[in-house]
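writing this on my phone so excuse typos. first protein, seq and then structure
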Amino acid sequence: MIKVKSEDLLRDTILFGITILLMLAANFLTVLGGDFWKTAVDVLFFAIISLNIAIAASLIRNVRRDFALLIFLLTYNVLLMGRVYTSWFGYHHKLLLLLEADDFSKLFQSLQLVALSLFCVYFAYRLAGPIFHKRESAIEKLHTKAVYKDHLLPLIRRLSTIVLYISSVPFFYILFKTALDVVRHGYLQSFTNTSDVPSIISRLSMFFVPAFAVFLATLPNKKQMKLPLAVYSVYMLASLFTGRRNTIVCEALMLTFYFVMRDSLLEKGKRVIKKRMVAYVGVFGIIAMYFLQMLALVRSGAEDTHRGLGEMLVSFIDSQGASFRVIVQTVNHIQSFNPSTTYLYLFYPFELFVHNNVVTRTLFGFTPIIEVQNSEFVQTTHNFGHALTYMVDPDRYLSGGGFGTSYVAEAYVAYGILGVIFVSAMIGLIFRFFASLLTHNWVVITCGLLAVKSFVYIPRNFAFLWVTDVFNITYICFYAAIYLAALFIAKGTHVRRTHRDVPDPLVLEERI
């Protein structure tokens, strides 16, 4: 039975009670109309701040268990509210201009969608507690004994490292080619041009990311992790030369989540991650934000890149928070969308998958979808980011710029408020699953680690891209192949040693 502490109940009642009262007051002001819309927006803004405080206070009480959702709370506020915060406190008199809203009623509606989605994510997360309570309790009481055991894990670990090293060669080749194109033609031109890569190189490179995820899923020790982690770190740093900042950030957040979950499996006296380390990571994060924003200024061709730390941090939050305009522009132009086809924007990742997968494309005669920003592509695509940018600013779109997308906007366009509620609830349920991820077998852990990267970025991403990214046919075949290979090696060794005891898998691992 789940016990609720009285102090937690009192805290949640007060903080969420204040939030609800502020939201009710904001909606009451909208009924009065006129100049009260501006006041309603102000009240709703503080309601969102109160909601964030309430959620953060609740998550920090069980920070190790709820760490994944705490990361999401951070990325959600940066990606969807960052520009709102900088505009609010810096240029409140220019809110409509800076946030690109047609009027205060549209701005109010946009902020309400952001608040509703965040509340539904957290509410679903809390409601899903009883479903995963047994596994979460096992982590708290049994620690490492709650981890799934399999005698093939050492073999799978070694095989995954071999694949990681082999696939790193074509993977880094493609990364180098992409970076070279960006240096030659500019960052924006990389979205309007395509570069040819030999098919064999492209296919081999696809195993690099899942091989590392499989390696982590086997829960290697510190010594076993050194070289694979070094190779993967080179990839993370090299991705910056392509001009894209989200890759290294999402990968870093996934690794942070993984190591916190690993640390949670240890008894309290043996844990490595403590308050001092958290402080060091915080300082490192601030420094990283500074240099990431410096990269953004360099790729944009800005002349003045010598700015103070405070100015750079504000600039970073403002630039990352530009995703809010996806929601604002969606509300501004909601009447321009065709209601009979808007649901296709929500499910575009599935359309992209069936068109580009060799099996489904051959069976149903689909043509491949090549995402290039030109007028021909935007007229036939259901990619919401492309469609919205072209609808609002065709010149910006054709020059390589774009607003991007967001699961909130896609869900709202497809099914209105109900769409936002259901998609947000799905996200909350999945984050609750992440809380006990390491108690599952290596395949589930692998899929979970790949999914974490998508979910921390989902405020600026497609609602269902994580499905096709995690459960694509190539990855599934890879998992099956590596398992069968480990099984074959283990059984082959057993046959050769029928007159002895079954060898220790650790010994087998050293002999591969």
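second protein below, same order as before
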Amino acid sequence: MKKTVVLFVLLGLLAGGYFYYRSLASGPTYALMQAARAFKSHDVTAFEQYVDVRSVSSSLINQVADQGSALGLPSSNSLLLQGALQVLKPQLSEIARQEVQQLVASGAAPTADKLPPTPLGKISVLGAVGNVVGSNSQFKGIAYTRQEGDQALVGLELNQPAYDTTVVVELKMLREGDHWQVKEIANARALVKRLAQLKKRKQ
């Protein structure tokens, strides 16, 4: 009788462990690990499976449209600038995809002179991401993962050596079939303001 009980306990533990592993292997954190692995191995196709670059860049433009400096443009709250950015969003999203593809494939982002022109001048969306998260930031760890159905928010904690502090970049992810994909930097606008405050304090 005791042997039967022990056997059922062991089977239960094994089953629980298996389903826990499967949840990790198909969850948002696993998708980020796969994206990092694809980046290191210069696998553009695999990287784009886990990161929707067009969606991330489109969302970024929406959030920082009134923060011209974040996009390398003169600071302005002009409605004209915001409107122009909205019109150019498809073009900028494609520029972002080209930048990321080159970065993943070669390990180096295209230089400013290689960027295609826009009516607002040459805009680097990767440069905008650097202005949002900090160009010298260093990955510290995953601060949290909040999953609800087919949507998840993952907080990545980054060290900011220049300001002796940390910030959390919140990624919004959606389940796409059998895997998860990054869709946006959910707190981009707040991060731009936070970095501006840190820079001002250091001056």
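Confidence is low (pLDDT under 50) at residues 1-24. thats all i got for now
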